[in-house]
Write a structure and sequence with these properties.
The chain has one domain. Helix content is 78%, strand content 0%. It has 12 helices and no strands. Helix 8 runs antiparallel to helix 11, helix 8 packs parallel to helix 12 and helix 11 runs antiparallel to helix 12. The model has no long low-confidence stretch (mean pLDDT 81).
Length: 273
């Protein structure tokens, strides 16, 4: 095999960087895209923040558990926006009918996925950092005050969001834009079982095992334990990491399988409904 052929097959950080740069130029050149990244997290933070203020003023338990609602909201936004940022970057290739060109270029599928993962962090940072700072100004809740626990929360939530985003992208590749709605709604399917705003014990006993299958459940339980009992549950984060490893592997294998099927059936060149 020639050196040129080996370079084409090998994973290339340069190709990943080129894709990230392409998405960054697209994002920064569109003020509606930038506004959308900040608008919805801000609206949710303000709404739930004032709900929490009211609850804290009228219930002894929530007075002790101050910050759990805003904390849950901000962590949920990391999970939801992480997946949505990944999916939107992918969907923009579908909307522009460019996905077929990319898949026929030297760009490897895993390089494409890594570029989308990087952009999901960029898009998340644009929206989440200003909103987290406003949460400090408006309600005195400092997400960064969680310290190293925040790193564990963030890493696990992003792994989940990427795993889901990768698999959904494969579904859209195989089935066309008719499957686009999965990108916008799939996270809300997990929301009740992930126990974002309430502990797992709130669920019926028969439903609790299903909740513990989802990695985000461990993150939100860990967040409440930290804010209420001031104890960091490293065991929960390790369990979440193990489940995320399985989920991420399923997402990648599913994406590559669906991509292979899309190539076989000619779906890459038929990106309509």
């Amino acid at each position: 095999m020639s050196a040129r052929a080996e370079n084409a097959i090998a994973f290339s950080p340069q190709r990943v960087a080129a894709m990230v740069l392409r998405y960054w130029y697209l994002l920064r050149s569109s003020w509606p895209r930038l506004l959308d990244l900040i608008y919805w997290p801000l609206v949710q933070m303000i709404t739930w923040g004032f709900i929490q203020v009211y609850v804290m003023q009228n219930a002894g338990f929530f007075a002790r558990a101050g910050g759990t609602l805003i904390g849950a909201l901000l962590l949920w936004d990391i999970l939801f926006r992480g997946q949505l940022g990944f999916s939107i970057a992918f969907l923009e290739e579908m909307w522009s009918r460019n996905i077929g060109n990319l898949m026929m270029s030297p760009l490897r599928p895993l390089e494409f996925v890594v570029a989308l993962m990087v952009m999901s962090i960029v898009r998340l940072a644009v929206g989440a950092i200003p909103v987290s700072l406003l949460a400090i100004a408006f309600f005195g809740f400092n997400l960064y005050g969680l310290g190293l626990a925040l790193v564990a929360f963030f890493f696990n939530l992003m792994l989940t969001s990427w795993a889901v985003g990768i698999f959904v992208s494969g579904l859209v590749l195989r089935n066309g834009l008719g499957a686009e709605n999965f990108a916008w709604s799939i996270m809300f399917v997990f929301m009740p079982l992930a126990c974002v705003y309430y502990p797992v014990t709130t669920l019926p006993a028969w439903l609790q095992p299903a909740a513990w299958i989802l990695p985000p459940t461990y993150v939100f339980e860990g967040m409440r334990e930290l804010l209420i009992s001031h104890a960091f549950r490293a065991d929960l984060m390790v369990e979440a990491l193990g489940l995320n490893a399985v989920l991420f592997a399923i997402g990648v294998v599913g994406f590559l399988t669906l991509l292979k099927s899309a190539r076989r059936h000619g779906s890459l060149m038929q990106t309509g409904e």
